[in-house]
Specification:
Keywords: Acetylation, Hydrolase. The protein is globular. It has two domains: 171 residues, DD-peptidase/beta-lactamase superfamily (Beta-lactamase); 128 residues, DD-peptidase/beta-lactamase superfamily (Beta-lactamase). It is built from 13 helices and seven strands. It is an alpha+beta fold and 312 residues long. Strands 2-1-7-6-5 form a five-stranded antiparallel sheet, sandwiched between helices. A two-stranded antiparallel ribbon has the order 3-4. The protein binds glutamine (GLN). The site of glutamine has 11 residues, from loops.
Length: 312
């Protein structure tokens, strides 16, 4: 396999992994007991070119829950299901500068600010089509299969725990129902939202998902289309402006890559047309982003000139 082949880029990634393995800042998410079980030392880096060449180092097989990273991809499915105009009427694309779980809607239109905060993500999930809860979940899992090239499973204890403790998300959903922004199948939509957050992925999956977006929506290994070409730009745009919670502005400034993070410790980041990156390291900073994941992307951007606005 490609990993066995000595390459300067792989050597670089090995050094990068070693450099940040010793960084012990941050804390593993513990808002539900299942996430607190994560080991702080777990650390994987995977980079996949938009042509499908794969490089990986560390814990790239270790499964964890995708959490908020799902939001970007489910947004793409909602665009396919309902079209841009309708989706935009229900969810704006404006960064908030607020925490991901803030209970705030746009005052004029009552829309949630963007699909990457919980409010916008729940409104997005509400738009996923299907005749039953089971069918809607099947469609979401099928979409992720196209992105990753393999069947994914739910972490059922995480799902049940999110559901049992998710009253803040429930409150956000009811506020949106009050304004007529989502349908009244509230518990079904919240279940689907908690389920999409509980999908288990590894760093390689996140690299492949990013590489698929970087490749215009087609998985570069399986050649299967995961997202209609006309919506790839929409998904990547909201990742760039809103993907790293209330760190998004600083992230664009320093790293300059569309990306999405999750409290499970994952980050998926891409260089459009070129590269997908997946990182996994559970300790998070105060804003909920993986500490080592941010460092890895900062170094990659700097050392290879991958910042989107790099003109050197
Ligand atoms: N399931 C989490 C929530 O809805 C997702 C949080 C995240 O990754 N930021 O609160």
């Amino acid at each position: 396999s490609i990993q066995a082949v000595a390459s300067p880029f792989r050597s670089y990634l090995i050094d990068l992994h070693e450099k940040y393995q010793s960084l012990t800042d941050g804390a593993v998410a513990d808002y539900i007991p299942e996430l607190a079980l994560a080991t702080p030392e777990w650390f994987g880096i995977c980079a996949i070119t938009s042509k499908g060449q794969e490089f990986e180092v560390g814990d790239c097989d270790k499964l964890f829950t995708i959490q908020s990273i799902s939001k970007a991809f489910v947004y793409g499915l909602a665009l396919e299901d309902c079209g841009r105009e309708y989706v935009n009427s229900k969810v704006s694309v404006e960064p908030t500068g607020e925490a991901f779980n803030s209970i705030v809607l746009d005052e004029k239109t009552n829309r949630p600010y963007n699909p990457m905060v919980n409010a916008g993500a729940i409104a997005t999930t509400d738009l996923i089509r299907g005749n039953s809860a089971t069918e809607r979940l099947k469609r979401v899992l099928e979409m992720f299969r196209c992105y990753t090239g393999r069947e994914l499973d739910l972490n059922v204890p995480v799902f049940l725990s999110e559901k049992a403790t998710g009253n803040r998300n429930r409150a956000i959903a009811y506020l949106m129902l009050n304004f007529g922004m989502i349908s009244d199948r509230i518990e079904e939509t919240l279940d689907l939202y908690f389920q999409q957050c509980s999908i288990m992925v590894n760093a390689r999956d996140l690299g492949m998902m990013a590489a698929t977006l970087a490749n215009g929506g087609v998985n570069p290994v399986t050649q299967e289309r995961a997202l209609d070409e006309r919506y790839v730009q929409d998904v990547i745009s909201v990742m760039l402006t809103c993907g790293m919670y209330d760190y998004s502005g600083e992230w664009i400034y320093k790293v300059g890559m569309p990306a999405k993070s999750g409290v499970g410790g994952g980050i998926t980041a891409l260089v459009p047309g070129k590269l997908g990156i997946g990182t996994f390291s559970p300790p998070l900073d105060a804003k909920g982003n993986s500490v080592r994941g941010i460092k890895v992307c900062e170094d990659l951007a700097r050392d290879f000139g991958l910042h989107l606005f790099n003109v050197a």
